[in-house]
Design a protein that fits this description.
171 residues; alpha+beta; Aminopeptidase; ten-stranded mixed beta sheet
Length: 171
């Protein structure tokens, strides 16, 4: 499964791709036939392992976890993104994303997020998409604003402290 935008190919990670990513950048570069930079992810191996466990446990979780954005012109992996699982019983999915430092401030996080939103809403079960950010204006809050999200609340997270909850409902 792949989502294509103007500048990006968002590759849905199956167990093989996730295992390659966990093994290391050179294994991932060989698997995807792309350039992989050292700083492509800040989420780290634990997040990849968690995603691998989820997609391995249930066929229904496939395409609802990690996506790798490849910059088409550079054939370079520039971050990661995706969802935190398939739609809930009330029709909600949660979205997350990151872009490597030297690809930031080019609109690519917004482009990736828009592609993930469009893909999610193709599934009739999805009624709303949520996201969480640190409780301050930053690059992520700008991306969410541009992609039509509304700030709908604040949560006190045991790990991150105060965070903002964002939501975009199906039109």
């Amino acid at each position: 499964m792949m989502i294509e935008t103007s500048n990006l190919l968002l590759i849905s990670c199956d167990p093989e791709i996730l295992r390659s990513a966990i093994e290391g950048n050179s294994a991932l570069a060989r698997k995807l036939d792309v350039t992989v930079q050292d700083d492509w992810t800040g989420f780290g191996v634990a997040a990849l392992q968690y995603s691998l466990d989820k997609v391995t446990d249930s066929e229904e979780e496939r395409n609802w976890w990690t996506y790798f954005p490849v910059h088409k012109q550079d054939n370079t992996l520039i971050g990661s993104g995706g969802y935190k699982g398939r739609p809930t019983t009330d029709g909600t999915v949660e979205l997350g994303y990151e872009i490597a430092p030297n690809y930031r401030n080019r609109g690519l996080a917004t482009e990736m997020t828009a592609g993930l939103i469009e893909h999610a809403f193709k599934d009739d079960r999805v009624k709303a998409i949520i996201a969480h950010t640190l409780a301050q204006d930053n690059a992520s809050t700008k991306v969410l604003h541009k992609c039509g999200f509304q700030k709908v609340g604040e949560i006190n997270d045991p790990d991150d402290g105060l965070i903002w909850r964002w939501e975009r409902k199906r039109q």
